[in-house]
Amino acid sequence: MAEIKLVVLDWAGTTIDFGCRAPSGAFVAAFATKGVAVTLPEARGPMGLHKKDHIRAMLRTEAVGGKWRAAAGRDWSEADVEELYCDVTPRQVEAAVTYSELIPGAREAVTAVRAAGIKVAATTGYFHEAAAAVAGAAKRQGYEPDFNICADDVPAGRPAPWMIFRCMEALGVYPPAAVLKVGDTVIDIEDGRNAGCWSVGVIDSSNEMGLSADELRALPPAELAARRGAITERYKQAGAHAAINDLGALPALIADLNAKLARGERP
């Protein structure tokens, strides 16, 4: 009988770094060195992509591209992307270490998943150095995935499905219907769908929410509900099969997906 055999989890905003704060701040600081004042929402927009692709995606927007032209007096070039990436790299490694605390409930959720005989893999848009820093910090806190891969390890990062396919190959899990991808960005949803697996978005700790745990707790109930609803809708517009507030909902979600698989449903 078909059932979920592998859960593929994102890192920042899903299992570590509540609010996905490390990557966004590094982009803001790097652009500032060029006289370009980007906002946190502008920096967050393409989150989930390989970081070099992230820079390109920011520059291609009307807002950031316009700011670049105003500051530099010309359009951006690939040489500019390389310079920004070289600046972002050490900033992101430092930020990844600073914001490397496990999201509350993540370790317990992984323990519950593994108790059900399900393997756990991790993917990220981080480059090798930042990915290694995050993985090391998570291991010291008691979380180590069965397989870990970053965007530098594949021909193309998200939304291409190659990282998920590598996880499946390394852990011997197929078909894609036996795989659940969980992330905190629209790009995460898209790479899960492109891999042909179940694709689910986490809400409260996400890049989409963009708040620290304290900021989230301070929200009035009506505003929290409205934000959760808006994020759920963005995920579903991207093709998400479901959205969950936090990883504590994983066991129940997997049980629901297993019931669908038993009925013959597929992603």
Tell me what you see in this structure.
This protein is of the alpha/beta class. It is 51% helix and 10% strand. The chain contains 12 helices and 6 strands. It has a 6-stranded parallel beta sheet with strand order 3-2-1-4-5-6, with helices on both faces. The protein is globular, with a radius of gyration of 18 Å. The model has no long low-confidence stretch (mean pLDDT 95).
Short description:
This protein is an alpha/beta fold and 267 residues long. The chain is built from twelve helices and six strands.
Number of helical segments with 4 or more residues: 12
Order of helices and strands: EHHHHHHEHEHEHEHHEH
Instruction: List the strand order in the largest sheet.
Output: 3-2-1-4-5-6
Q: Percent helix among the residues? A: 40-55%
Task: Name the beta content range.
Answer: 5-15%
Overall residue-averaged pLDDT value: 95
Shape: globular
Question: Poorly predicted ranges (pLDDT <50, ≥5 residues)?
Answer: none
Question: Using DSSP, what is the number of strands?
Answer: 6
Alpha carbon gyration radius: 18 Å
Q: Give the CA-CA distance, first to last residue.
A: 16 Å
Largest sheet: 6 strands, parallel
Class derived from helix and strand content: alpha/beta
Q: Descriptors for this entry?
A:
267 residues, alpha/beta, globular
Question: Secondary structure elements and their pairing?
Answer:
Blueprint: E1 6-10, H1 21-32, H2 40-44, H3 51-60, H4 62-72, H5 78-98, H6 106-115, E2 119-124, H7 128-140, E3 147-150, H8 162-171, E4 179-183, H9 186-194, E5 198-202, H10 213-218, H11 221-237, E6 242-244, H12 250-262
Parallel strand pairs: 1-2, 1-4, 2-3, 4-5, 5-6
Helix pairs in contact: 1-5, 3-5, 5-7
